[in-house]
Design a protein that fits this description.
The protein is built from 20 helices and no strands. It has about 450 residues and is an all-alpha fold. α3 crosses α4, α10 packs parallel to α12 and α15 packs antiparallel against α16. The N terminus is likely disordered.
Length: about 450
């Protein structure tokens, strides 16, 4: 008797990807195709890794599906279910490869189920708490890998961040980063690291790496020239992690931080697409539902501290979230509680010292206690040279100098910062600020 799963797999392998109700080609067909494909790509990679257990096969098949989409969609139109289309193409390719090797029937059966799901356009069943991407993040963040490898591998695999961009973030060449990514995947395979969300003590061991990955993922999307979809994905994954680990305060704090920062997304740019400083943003355009949700999370954390007789502010992510809450809950820029922000940065600098935290601490003290106090702290932070050629340090000095009254020097500093930044959006904002200071 024919195996039903094998029969279904055979039938689906020769089916064309569903393109029912595809949108007609248009002038913007290629960008739309690229956006739709990029959004679905990480989920497909993660799902194929789970089913096949073969990292390279999953990536190769997903990339072939992506290439096919970018060839066909601009011509034929983007399908009504782009993810299903891509999953079918990638799944077909994986089936072809696996049939030529000795594989478990279970893998072929699961791939066949994927084919039926994609062909009908129905959503895949969502597990109550975790999904394949979350499993993949925990796999990438295994303690057997160095922290840099964990972060880089997750950014590449989950977020499809180009290797060149990851290399730039880690200050290495693209070829060096490509080799590191290959070594990390090989280590996962050779060590037979399981593809799952761990339990018990192992969950706690992996958590710092996972939180760091999500933080960098959000930052990659929130930066001036970043991809907003990455920030949205970080929020989504932080929600899943929060449901998985409700007893971990830093998980809830990270979600609160993301919600507070992301709440300003619609007000961060003007009609021309230029960055709008926080103090000048239209606060009515902020996402106040997200702000309320974040404040509720932080209030619950504070009650937990009081229950445990801990009157502190919690861990690093909670401190950052409370800083963001001071900005988000102020009715106007003048109402911002800079004294509380400065106190949070004092604690953060003790707990997690870094040049960037010291820089932000200097700015906070400059607003809480006057520009002279801020400039003094900034000078201390720059003594070891870590902030040399860092454009945001120059911009902070320029802002504090302007508030102290030396507008001409402040304008020069803003222009110097503009020359050093790699972000075109930031460059325009800094040049505009420099010009405003010299305007009559």
């Amino acid at each position: 008797m024919t195996d039903p799963a094998r029969a279904a797999a055979d039938a689906a392998a020769h089916a064309h990807p569903p393109a029912a109700h595809a949108s007609p080609p248009a002038a913007d067909a290629y960008p739309r195709a690229a956006d739709a494909a990029a959004e679905a790509y990480p989920r497909i990679v993660a799902t194929l890794i789970r089913i096949t257990g073969n990292w390279s096969l999953a990536e190769d098949c997903a990339q072939e599906a992506l290439a096919s989409a970018l060839e066909r969609w601009p011509r034929d139109g983007v399908p009504a279910n782009p993810g299903g289309w891509l999953m079918t193409v990638a799944r077909n390719r994986a089936l072809d490869v696996l049939r030529r090797t000795s594989v478990e029937r279970r893998k072929l059966r699961e791939l066949a189920v994927l084919a039926v799901t994609a062909a009908t356009g129905e959503p895949e069943p969502e597990e109550e708490v975790v999904d394949d991407r979350l499993r993949l993040i925990f796999t990438c963040c295994h303690p057997a890998l160095a922290m840099e490898a964990r972060v880089a591998l997750t950014l590449r695999t989950i977020c499809a961040v180009p290797t060149a961009d990851i290399a730039r973030a880690f200050l290495v060449s693209e070829s060096t980063m490509a080799r590191r990514l290959t070594r990390a995947k090989t280590k996962i395979s050779d060590a037979r690291i399981p593809y799952r969300v761990p339990g018990g003590a192992a969950l706690g061991e992996r958590l710092p790496g996972v939180l760091a990955v999500l933080y960098l993922l959000f930052t990659h999307g929130y930066n001036a020239d970043g991809e907003p979809a990455f920030a949205e994905e970080a929020v989504r994954l932080a929600r899943l992690l929060s449901r998985l680990m409700p007893a971990q305060p830093e998980v809830g704090a990270l979600l609160a931080l993301f919600l507070l920062q992301h709440s300003r997304r619609d007000a961060r740019r003007d009609a021309a697409g230029d960055l709008v400083p926080l103090a000048d943003q239209d606060r009515s355009r902020w996402d106040h539902a997200a702000i309320t949700e974040a404040v509720t999370i932080l209030t619950a954390l504070q009650h937990e501290h009081e229950h445990e007789h801990d009157m502190g502010y919690g861990g690093p992510y909670e401190l950052q979230a409370r800083i963001a809450a001071c900005h988000a809950t102020a009715a106007t820029a003048d109402d911002t509680d800079w004294g509380r922000i400065a106190a949070c940065y004092d604690r953060l600098a003790e707990m997690q010292p870094s040049p960037v935290i010291e820089l932000n601490r200097a700015v906070a003290h400059g607003y809480a206690h006057g520009p002279a106090a801020g400039l003094e702290l900034l000078e201390r932070a720059r003594r070891d040279g870590a902030l040399d050629n860092y454009p945001l340090a120059l911009a902070a000095e320029a802002d504090l100098t302007a508030r102290k009254g030396d507008r001409e020097r402040a304008s020069t500093l803003f222009l110097q910062a503009a020359e050093q930044t790699h972000s075109e959006s930031e460059r325009r904002a800094l040049v505009t600020r420099a010009a405003e200071l010299l305007a009559p």
